[in-house]
Each structure stands twice: as structure tokens, then as C-alpha cells.
Amino acid sequence: MSENKTNKAQPVQKSKVELKSAKxxxxxxxxxxxxxxxxxxTAVNPALNALLWLVAVVLVAGAIVGNWYYxxxxxxxxxxxxRFIRVAxxxxxxxxxxxxxxxxxxxxxxxxxGRESYVELRKVVWPTRQEAVQTxxxxxxxxxxxxxxxxxxxxxxxxxxxxxxx
Length: 166
Description:
Number of domains: 2
Radius of gyration: 33 Å
Structural class: mainly alpha
Shape: extended
Strand content: under 5%
Oligomer: single chain
Distance between the termini: 108 Å
């Protein structure tokens, strides 16, 4: 009977894996009364998304068509500076048009992808200079060997074709 009392009094010990999974589950569940974060991709109203795409297409197409029309139909002798200004305006309007697309659903997912790619890029273990030089040398030797083999195959096949056709 005394054994039952000692077993009940001992606390239950959890393994480290169970503790870590419990902590992770607690972090993933929002606190009571807290709102869950909506994904960034669904934050744009579909009508606004369509309007942003329309604005972007109109800006880019307008810049291209306007530049074409100006160079084909407006007969003005442009100096180098005037041409530079015209090209700079066209490039700026195209960049603005492409920038508008970053506020769309696809644009936000592209930005999110870029951020995640940058995070992954920082995790890469880059080779040392010595490793890079050695690898480059190995690739150079392999390319030389393969090119020599292909050259010899070409010479042999050329002789075979000449022998067959003559």
C-alpha cells in the first residue's frame, strides 16, 4: 500500500521530444482572442487586383506604343540629350508599370518568393577559394578530355563516310 502512495506522488517526466513538440504546438496556436494572420496573397480585393493589372498593362503598353509613335510620326530632330530624356521617360514608365504589378496577388507572392530565396541563399555554404579553383581545374580537364574524344569521333566518322561514299 505504501508503494501506491509513492507512485502517485512522483511527477510524470516527459521526454525532450515530447516537450519540444508541445512547445511547437503552443506557438502555432494563436492566443485566446488573438486574430490569425491572413496570408499576404489574399489581402488584395479581386476587383482591385484586376484594376492594378489593367493599370500596369496600360502603362507598359502606353510607353511602348508612345515611344514607337514618337519615333515614327513626329518629325523632330532630337539632340542626344532630348533622346536621352525620352528614353529615360519610357524606361521610368515601364518600371512604374511593372512596380504596380508588385501590389497584385501574383506580385506579392513574387516578393514573398524573393524573400524566401534570399533567406535560403544565406544558408548556403560557399566553397573556399581553394575549393573553387580545384573544382574549376577539374571541370577544365574534363571538358578538354570530352572535346578531344568528340574530335577523334568526328575524324573517325568523317573517314568512314569518305570510305563509304567514294
